[in-house]
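Format notes (please read before filing issues)

Several people have asked whether sequences and structure tokens are stored in separate files. They are not. Every record keeps both together, in the order shown below: the sequence lines, then the token lines. Line labels are part of the format and must not be stripped during preprocessing.
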Amino acid sequence: MTQPDAYRIALAQNVATNGRLFCILLAAANYATGHPFGVAYAAVPVGFAWASDLVSHPTLKRGWAHASIVTAIILAILTFLNCW
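Then the structure lines:
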């Protein structure tokens, strides 16, 4: 494994971990404001990221990863509106 490959893997793992922690924070914010469905929806981006990790086809992997990012953004906006 070359140096740039190791760097890319470490960066991807860091992004994935931070994304999952972000979803945990969103779930906590929804729980604190009394929105149980927001807590449940916080698992959706994590599920998409998990599916992306399991798929080997590059197009499907990219699609699941994009779905994870988009749902996390939508969840963040909805959480912001719920907490307002």
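For reference, the curators noted about this record: The two ends are 48 Å apart (CA to CA). The chain is about 90% helix and 0% strand.
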